[in-house]
Amino acid sequence: MDISLDGKTALVTGGSRGIGRAIALTLAELGADVAITFASSEEAANEVKNEMTSKGVRAKALQADAVDLEKAEEVIAELTEDWEKIDILVNNAGITRDNLILRMKEEQWDQVINTNLKSIFNYSKAVAKPMMRNRGGSIINISSVVGLSGNAGQSNYAASKAGIIGFTKSYAKELASRGIRANVIAPGYITTEMTDELDEKVLASIKEETPLGRPGDAEEVAHAVAFLASDLSSYITGETIRVDGGMAM
Amino acid sequence: MSQDVESKVKSIIVDKLGVDEEEVTHDANFTNDLGADSLDTVELIMEFEKEFDISIPDEDAENIATVGNAVEYLQDKV
């Protein structure tokens, strides 16, 4: 039994770098046509697009600020016009603006909540009608183990990532009758540019807290996304799957 | 033309909600009388948009609760 996404179309927000990039490439590898959005890294986004095209699928790289609902509706309209339907949405776009609560600026709170949480509302709302018309779809929202366990210095990030879980469960309940599934992936410590910013001491303690004893690869997150995107997971909705080496169990 | 709109609207409702034609009276409320849930109502609006090739903004859609509301709204727009 193989996972195949042949004939399916997908959108991955924040797909130019890190986990989003790995997800986009994996979905393309499995046969899906994939569009990615990016905020600013145009060069990286085009590289991902070219790499996907070389796998023999259709690919797009679209510049879109994830915070902008109108832009999200434009992106979805473009995809449903050019590719007729959208089967898979991976809400991955996210940022960190870490600080202790005592020092956190309002701007740091707002930026993280808007980029990480409002973006999920934007894109999930925009795909709802096309997916209803298509009598099905799979939405995968990328949260974090920090949303399950909390983390000192990341209250804004943790709040946004926990919010994603509540949103996803509500969405799953609202749209299940139309064949639309919505699930969450909660990655733990995955090696990306985002974790490159962490200092050595923090990294050492993260490793210590991970039963599997090593950081994860972005591809290992992408594999779980591929499963949830595919029909192999057809009876799973509203679920959160940790991909964290056992960190948050 | 107005007769056309009315019969088209009624046939969409019969088709979408799986109800009998005689139930689809002018005053019938989609939710209370015709058994539509909230998503059915959204889908009805989407179907009207498709069949009549128009776009119905959310603020207008919220006021379309009965067969009569739909017929009058669409007669006005088409």
TrEMBL record, chain B:
The modification O-(pantetheine 4'-phosphoryl)serine is found at residue 38. Pfam families: PP-binding. InterPro entries: ACP, ACP-like_sf, PP-bd_ACP, Ppantetheine_attach_site. The keyword Lipid metabolism applies. Coiled coil: none annotated. Pathway: Lipid metabolism; fatty acid biosynthesis. It comes from the Bacteria. Transmembrane segments: none annotated. Residues 3-78 form the Carrier domain. Signal peptide: none annotated. 4'-phosphopantetheine is transferred from CoA to a specific serine of apo-ACP by acpS. 4'-phosphopantetheine is transferred from CoA to a specific serine of apo-ACP by AcpS. This modification is essential for activity because fatty acids are bound in thioester linkage to the sulfhydryl of the prosthetic group. Keywords: Cytoplasm, Fatty acid biosynthesis, Fatty acid metabolism, Lipid biosynthesis, Lipid metabolism, Phosphopantetheine, Phosphoprotein. It is found in: Cytoplasm. Carrier of the growing fatty acid chain in fatty acid biosynthesis. PANTHER family: ACYL CARRIER PROTEIN (PTHR20863), CARRIER DOMAIN-CONTAINING PROTEIN (PTHR20863:SF76). Belongs to the acyl carrier protein (ACP) family. This is Acyl carrier protein. It comes from Fodinibius salsisoli.
